[in-house]
Amino acid sequence: MKIAISGKGGVGKTTIMALVAEELRREGNEVLIIDADTSPHMAQTIGIEDPGRIVPISEMKSLLVERAGKVEGSPFYNINPQVDDILSRYMVEAGGIKLMVLGAIETGEQGCACAENTVLKRMLTKLLLSPSQVVLLDMEAGVEHLGRGTIAGVDHLLTVVIPTRSSIRTALKVKKLAGDVGIKSVYFVGNRVVDREDEEFLIEGLGIRPIAFFPETPAIGKAERRGLPVTSQLETVRIQVKELLAALS
Do 44 and 225 contact (CB within 8 A), yes or no? Predict the structure, then answer.
């Protein structure tokens, strides 16, 4: 199964994805997270020590040019790059969860991550998974990845939304663009919900009930500030995580 997560910046998608990964691991699944956010934080979130040692694909310039097949002097990339060995060569592991980082844009005017996203798209289409293997993609905030069709090969797209009008607008746009690229299984996930009024606000704005409502959880924020993995706080929202996964089965 391949699950991607998206949403407006700051809505908590990385946190929810990490908690989902931990629950899947506890259920006996092999879990790989691909952090495809241009500002990656998943390593810290799942408790990988010294995340600076991870070499993201975006820094492998010669590999990307070779695999994505950019023609000298041309703006186009090969849409069918060889990626068989990348997963095994560039993964790290923490607590039974594997992680690969696509990488970040580190300097101004660096341009789009075209080669990185071409390689990622190819990975997703080539991955053949057993029932106990799950790939989770933490996508960049917003909707640009859908414009590039990067996640067209996923089975499910989760869109995290908090009780604000701007978050709802982004979530609805994500759903529309997901439909345009052929992703049929798109779900909303409510986060930072305080009370019933927040739930009703999301239901009315989205036009459908999210598959789970994650409450405002101070313990998760405190764990992050203390440098603890967010996955250590799964029990505080395990009911909601199980509801989310049940909706995908």
Answer: no
**Residue 187, beta-bridge partner list:** 158
- d(Cα 234, Cα 85) in Å, to the nearest integer? 32
> pLDDT tens, 46-98?
988 776 777 676 666 566 566 666 555 666 555 555 656 666 677 788 889 98
> Contact at 8 Å (CB) between 67 and 60?
no
pTM of the full structure: 0.81
Quote the CA–CA distance of 199 and 205 in Å, as a whole number. Answer: 10
Count of residues making up the chain: 249
Which has the closest alpha carbon to 60: 86, 23, 99?
86
* pLDDT tens, position by position, 164-223: 999 999 999 999 988 887 888 999 999 999 999 999 999 999 999 999 999 999 999 999
- The rounded distance, in Å, linking the Cα atoms of 182 and 93 is 32
Cα Rg, the chain, nearest whole Å: 18
The number of distinct structural domains making up the chain is 1
Instruction: Check which CATH number belongs to the domain holding 184 and give it.
Output: 3.40.50.300
- Strand-strand pairing, 213-215 and 186-193: parallel
Does residue 167 contact residue 8 with C-beta atoms inside 8 Å? yes
Question: What range defines the domain where residue 123 resides?
Answer: 2-248
Give the three-class secondary structure for 148: coil
Cα dist from 214 to 139, 164, 185, 192, whole Å? 19, 15, 20, 6
Q: Can you tell me which residue has the tokens 């949403």?
A: 7
Nearest to 230 by CA among 38, 83, 48, 40: 48
Question: 3-class SS at 192?
Answer: strand
